[in-house]
């Protein structure tokens, strides 16, 4: 990595990392990496109450990291930016190990 190439983007990178640097926000993004998920399904999957989940979704939405779409009486959230998806895939590989990440990729492509 060339430090000179990073310098003009360091502030933006720091802002992005701050935006996702929260346990609930990371879990939400991990749950969304395979596609849109309803708020109710996020609650069930993550075991997070509606109010704190909504607060974190609102922060992610305000930063342009996720987007919501109403379908009937439900709101589905999805990752809004390809760079966030790439970060989440890399993070999964680093944190969970390459074997888990590869298995998840295989499940995503098989679906």
Structure description:
This protein is an alpha+beta fold. The chain has one domain: Winged helix-like DNA-binding domain superfamily/Winged helix DNA-binding domain (Arc Repressor Mutant, subunit A), CATH 1.10.10. The protein is 67% helix and 13% strand. A three-stranded antiparallel β-sheet has the order 1-3-2. β2 and β3 form a beta hairpin. α6 packs across α7. The termini are far apart. The mean pLDDT is 88.
Which tags fit this structure?
111 residues; alpha+beta; three-stranded antiparallel beta sheet; globular; Arc Repressor Mutant, subunit A; single chain
SSE layout and pairing:
Elements (H helix, E strand, L loop, with lengths): L2 H4 L3 H11 L2 H10 L4 E2 H8 L3 H13 L3 E6 L2 E6 L2 H15 L1 H13 L1
Antiparallel strand pairs: 1-3, 2-3
Please state how the strands of the largest beta sheet are arranged side by side. Answer: 1-3-2
Examine the coordinates and then state which fold CATH places here, giving the name of the CATH topology: Arc Repressor Mutant, subunit A
Distance between termini?
A: 35 Å
Structural class: alpha+beta
Q: How confident is the prediction overall: mean pLDDT? A: 88
User: Unreliable segments (pLDDT under 50, ≥5 consecutive)?
Assistant: none
Portion in strands: 5-15%
Count helical runs. Answer: 7
Bulk shape: globular
Largest sheet composition: 3 strands, antiparallel
**CATH hierarchy: architecture:** Orthogonal Bundle
Q: Give helix and strand order, one letter per element, not per position.
A: HHHEHHEEHH
**What is the count of distinct domains?**
1
The helix content is 55-70%
Q: What is the chains' assembly state?
A: single chain
Number of DSSP E strands: 3
Query: What is the CATH H-level superfamily?
Result: Winged helix-like DNA-binding domain superfamily/Winged helix DNA-binding domain
Query: What is the name of the CATH class?
Result: Mainly Alpha
Measured on Cα atoms, how large is the radius of gyration? 15 Å
């Amino acid at each position: 990595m060339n430090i000179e190439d990073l310098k003009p983007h360091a502030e933006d990178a720091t802002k992005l990392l701050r935006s996702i640097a929260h346990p609930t926000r990371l879990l939400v993004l991990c749950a969304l990496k395979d596609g849109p998920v309803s708020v109710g399904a996020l609650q069930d999957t993550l075991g997070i109450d509606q109010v704190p989940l909504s607060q974190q979704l609102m922060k992610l939405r305000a930063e342009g990291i996720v987007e919501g779409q109403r379908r009937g009486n439900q709101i589905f959230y999805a990752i809004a930016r390809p760079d966030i998806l790439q970060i989440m895939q890399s993070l999964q590989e680093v944190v969970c190990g390459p074997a888990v990440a590869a298995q998840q990729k295989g499940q995503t492509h098989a679906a």
